[in-house]
Design brief:
Layout lengths: L2 H11 L4 E7 L5 H14 L3 E5 L10 H12 L4 H13 L3 E5 L2 H7 L1 H10 L4 E3 L9 H10 L2 E3 L1 E2 L5 H10 L4 E4 L14 H12 L7 E4 L5 H8 L4 E4 L1 H9 L3 H21 L3
Parallel strand pairs: 1-2, 1-9, 2-3, 3-4, 4-5, 6-7, 7-8, 8-9
Helix pairs in contact: 2-4, 2-12, 6-7, 8-9, 10-12, 11-12
Length: 270
């Protein structure tokens, strides 16, 4: 069992959803991003998605694009990302990488999987990679003992849901809306129905279904936690660092935000 699987099982045993936070490695710089991750964990995050900054983030909204852009300007490399993964794993949280496929392919698929495992990472989320084209990654992640997380969306057919869930390990990432990342005033009405449909596709495996895109406060976290196995939040954490006058203020804001979200997922305990 990977640390990710263990954390999700622990949350489930407590009758609650897991809290999953996202932050680009190297934002605002590598050393500071490690401190932000620690604040996220201190506030209550069970799992951290460490973003691999990429120059063509087509699925990301303006907040995460800005954060990732700052990380790239600071010179963040894939090796730095793995260093942040190692530091994240040392906090006791499950450490994932979220990355577009191109940087992993350029790094070397087998090498990335091996180095990720060596850093203590649990798995990788590949939002722009579909199972039909993931043969090399499936083989490499199997060899390294990594979880692999693919995405489903409201537009996914039942057949695609089944295909994607069967290829996933750790959890299935349910993108709650069609569009780019970013906070929203309310959670998409399609989210709960997508989780229901995805659960049908995971009936035999019992694979957890976690929801992301658009969650911006504790009340929304509680709403999603009532029907999902995990609540994924990214832009809200990035925005608090961007808005802070200095790093220490940003850490305080991140810690408080994680605590608010944690209260939300626990309020929905079932």
């Amino acid at each position: 069992m990977t640390t990710l699987q263990s954390k999700l099982a622990e949350a489930r045993s407590q009758g609650r959803a897991a809290l999953i936070g996202y932050l680009p490695a190297g934002f605002p710089d590598v050393e500071s991003s490690v401190r932000v991750v620690q604040a996220m964990v201190d506030g209550g995050c069970d799992v951290i998605e460490v973003g691999l900054p990429y120059s063509d983030p087509t699925m990301d909204g303006p907040t995460i694009q800005r954060a990732a852009g700052m990380a790239l300007e600071a010179g963040t490399t894939p090796k730095d990302v793995l260093a942040v993964v190692r530091a994240t794993a040392a906090t006791g949280a499950a450490a994932l990488v979220m990355s577009y496929w191109n940087p992993i392919e350029r790094y070397g698929v087998e090498a990335f999987a091996a180095d990720m495992a060596d850093a203590g990472g649990s798995g990788v989320i590949t939002p722009d990679l579909i199972p039909e084209e993931a043969g090399p990654w499936i083989a490499a992640s199997d060899a390294a003992g990594l979880d692999r997380i693919f995405l489903v969306a409201p537009s996914s057919t039942d057949a695609r849901l089944k295909l994607t869930c069967d290829a996933s390990r750790g959890f299935v990432y349910a993108a709650s809306l069609m569009g780019v990342t970013g906070t929203r005033a309310k959670v998409s009405g399609t989210a709960e129905r997508l989780v229901e449909r995805t659960r049908e596709a995971t009936r035999d495996s019992g694979l957890p279904v976690c929801v992301g895109l658009g969650i911006s406060n504790g009340a929304q976290a509680a709403e999603v936690a009532a029907y999902a196995d995990g609540v994924i939040v990214g832009a809200g954490f990035c925005q608090r660092v961007l808005d802070a006058p200095d790093l220490e203020s940003g850490l305080d804001a991140v810690r408080a935000f994680a605590a608010e979200l944690g209260e939300g997922v626990r309020a929905a305990a079932r």
